[in-house]
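Example record used in the benchmark description.
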Amino acid sequence: MKKENFINFKLIFLFVIAILGITCCSNKEKEARNAYVLPSPWPMFLQNPFHTGRSLYPGPSNPQIKWKYPIAGLIEASPTIGTDGTIYVGSHNGCLYALTKQGKLKWKFCTHNLIRASVAIAKDGTIYLASVDGNFFALTPQGKVKWKFKTNGRNCSSPTIGTDGTIYFGSHDKYLYALTPQGKLRWKIKLGTISASSPAIAKDGTIYIGSYDGYFYVVNSTGKIKWKYKIGPVRASPVIGENGSVYIGTRNGKFYAFSKKGKLKWIFKTLNDIRASSVLGYDGTIYIGSWDNYFYAIAPDGELKWKYNVKGPVEASACVDKKGVIYVPVIAKYLYAFSSKGKVLWKLRGGMIHSSPIIGEKNIIYWGREHTILAIGEGK
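Model output (structure tokens):
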């Protein structure tokens, strides 16, 4: 073979290999993305298994209440959205409400005690519900019981669904549970009393959750502890960043950042209890509220970007819309809308707010305010 022909053949060969490599990588990336395709705009607490609290849709720039539905009992759970657009929210009266997009009641399902956790929606529309009565339910989209699973404690931890359909939740009986979509126990592991902390699931299947025994636990997909770290009592849920960093706040007012291997990266201190879970902006900024009456924007390196005195404690988590606007509920005050620079864009009067807002299609925010569910859309 002539030298120039050999060079040409080599170049063609390398070009083909490069194309195949790009195709392979693209397919792998596509598979990874498809594995995390969600069944609705907001199917679980904090929107996705990573708990980033980010929406694919923008919120309203000129808020107007489109409808409101009265519910007996305090609303602590954040709403979720079903595969057909149904809005689900539980109440301290023990009932789960299913509302249409127009704010009409479709049905309600009542347990024997409070509902403090958000429900999670599977790809087939199944609704997973944790109740303080010690039961964990799987309901059809019509509100009928498919199965129920009994724990030995109160269930206030919002369930999270993994990519293989496994359902994870914690209980006051000190166990983290992993259930199959058919309601069978896959495994359970004793960690300590799990209050309201909802498990976050990483891309590799690792589960992160906080406990009232003061530890932050990291468990692999087979139910074995990978590592744990003493941080103080935890009510909040962890959030996982794009680079695998994990963030969580504690009842002692400290906010922690860890690498995915368990190395402490930094600690950010507030002046009071952190009960709300943090959320992530699309640029990696971490947003967190505290009972010290401040809302904070923290850079990925742990430096403060800005803070704002919201003049009330923040107990419920914020959420972030497609444009980077952050919506922050403040007890006895307002639902704030902040720009990513910390400017107040608007605020809506609230009440005894314990529920996190969510964002659905058509710029609609769904939010629980005292004993009412609100749909807040774009005003004229």
